[in-house]
Amino acid sequence: MAFARFIAQIIRLRAHFPDYAIKKVRLDNAGEFTSAAFNDFCMSVGIDVEHPVPHVHTQNGMAESLIKRLQLIARPLILRTKLPITVWGHAILHAGALVQVRPSAYNKFSPIQLAFGNMPNISHLRVFGCAVYIPIAPPQRSKMGPQRRLGIYVGYSSPSIIRYLEPATGDMFTARFADSHFDENEFPALGGGSRESPNDITKWCTHSLAYLDPPSNQREVEVQKIIHMQRLANQLPMSSDTKRVTKSYIPAANAPSKIEVPHEHFDVNRASEPVQLKRGRL
Fold first, then answer.
1. Which residue, of 159, 184, 201, is where some domain finishes?
2. 131, 153 in Cβ contact below 8 A?
3. In whole angstroms, how far apart are CA 14 and each of 1, 7, 18, 21?
4. Per-residue confidence in pLDDT tens, the chain, 282 aa
5. What does DSSP say about strands 186-188 and 194-196: parallel, antiparallel, or unpaired?
6. What are the residue boundaries of the Integrase catalytic domain, all occurrences included (predicted)?
């Protein structure tokens, strides 16, 4: 399957970019990419195949970086919806489509704009996992019955064709974009049910604790005291810097010269034991 898709991708690239021939490809050590049939095909079209050392991902850093970028985009797409993790394949495909039409930190133009020279059309983009209402085919509807059915939007095949999931069965179907009605504030779940999309992403899993410590003048004073003590502590010399330490012969004003030992907590046997000094102390 991967071999067939790779050949189809090579044929598509050679048809779209005839002036730029594919000279070399770097692939992993999967069985479909190390077979004799695959090597014979690449040799026949003049493509050199490179295989990195097994379990050394740094030799394929560009592909690994792209995979990580797709994961960072696909993960919040799934978490925003009420879909299971098993839809990660649709999320990855949708993330790949988003990468193609959005600029990066290294270039102000999108990959599609750099490849074709035209600004991409993003009017067909919708929120992943939102509700979409698809027209029911004429043989399956009646004049007085429902005219549309609910679906879950999971991406698009082209600007005019979308992909959606059937909530009851989880099967994927395609529909015409112009005939679909989207509700980007509703996120259906597989098997039924829906939930409203939160407006603020910071409130998803965060519960307020302000009622435990309401703002007051006393709290602000305590905070300023802590900041002042921290500033004084930062100005003190380190324990290892003995040159800056000065011994004072002035006794403390509030320190008593003798501490009364309570008799109920005094242990005679323990008092007779020799005192163990700390290491480095005399």
1. 201
2. yes
3. 20, 11, 5, 7
4. 677 787 888 888 888 888 888 888 888 777 777 788 888 888 888 888 888 888 777 777 788 888 888 999 999 999 888 888 888 889 999 999 888 888 877 788 888 888 888 888 888 889 999 999 999 888 888 888 888 989 999 999 888 999 999 988 888 899 999 999 999 999 988 875 544 444 454 444 545 555 556 677 877 888 788 887 777 777 765 545 555 555 555 554 444 444 454 555 445 555 555 555 555 555
5. antiparallel
6. 1-119
112 is written with which tokens? 């599609």
From first CA to last CA, the distance across the chain in angstroms is: 78
Q: How many domains does the chain have?
A: 2
CATH code assigned at 192: 2.30.30
16 secondary structure, DSSP code: H
Beta bridge partners of 195: 187
| Domain encompassing residue 28 | 1-51
Question: pTM for the complete prediction?
Answer: 0.56
